[in-house]
Amino acid sequence: MRIGEIAALVGVTSRAVRHYHHIGLLPEPARQANGYRAYTVRDAVLLARIRRLTEIGLSLDEVRDVLADDAGRELGEVLAELDADLARQEREIQERRQVLAVLLEAPLASDGPLSPALAALLDHAPATTSPAAAKDREHLALLDAAGDGAGAELFAALRPLAENPGVLALYERLDELEGAGVDDPRIAPLAAELVAAVPDEVLAVIPEGEPSATGFGRVLLDDYPPAQRAVVRRVMEELAERVRRRGTS
């Protein structure tokens, strides 16, 4: 094979092959009488190995170390490993396409696509112009996008809360605290009522620990002004305590 042929076979550019030669990552093959490099199957396997390693994020120096560890391995063993790697990639692509198919079947919203579980939850939530309710929806969408499907059980458990008409009044009271200070006397009773409104089924899917200490919890808290943040922090802390008590009972 010539350089253009091996590059096309592996899926890289001829320039990349020359660069790998230049830095000593890919040994230069013997040249024919006409001066052209003559690449073999082993050269192609090595080049494919370099490409795979760089695609998963290794630097060229790290690739060099891996290849040094692979020195002396049988060609069949390396080919089998490359075949297994391709099979893994095929499975991952198929799994991603299956998730995409589910998302495409779900209603497309302005903040979507949403997972079927979150879309079903929001379909049961009453219409409202509350800014706090809108912010809650954004947080759920963020959890949905970052949770890799882990939020489905939580969204299902939140259905009774979404259908509770009294929750809208709580959102409106939270809206009223937008410009208030952290010493506002409305903070504690509102937090207590919000905690009381959360069904026990939700507690069963909330992991133990302090939510406000997690990355998602910190992002959520930073999204609120001081008085509202104090309410949400209290809700997080009291729900975490309820979860702990539930786990020891």
From TrEMBL:
HTH merR-type domain span: 1-69
Keywords from the named record: Coiled coil, DNA-binding
A GO molecular-function annotation: DNA-binding transcription factor activity
InterPro entries referenced in this protein's UniProt entry, alphabetically: DNA-bd_dom_put_sf, MerR-type_HTH_dom, MerR_fam
PROSITE patterns found in the cross-reference section: HTH_MERR_2
Coiled-coil residue spans: 79-106
Domain of life: Bacteria
UniProt name for this protein: MerR-family transcriptional regulator
Organism of this sequence: Streptomyces filamentosus NRRL 15998
